[in-house]
Amino acid sequence: ASVILVNNHPSGNLKPSQADLDFTKRLCNSGNILGIEVLDHVIVTKKSWVSLKKEGLMPESA
Length: 62
Prior knowledge:
This protein is of the alpha+beta class. About 25% of the residues lie in helices and about 30% in strands. The longest helix is centred in the middle third of the chain and has 17 residues, at about 20-35.
């Protein structure tokens, strides 16, 4: 099984917050224990989106 995380930033700022990065790391670690691969974390705004994987910001375990 695998998942792609998606969350919105109503502020319009695409930059991942430290909370976004910490949450992604925790979910990747949990996924490893459960056998669920976290493929990516995508942040969306009204005008655009950013992929943490594409930006090289996914944890090493992902």
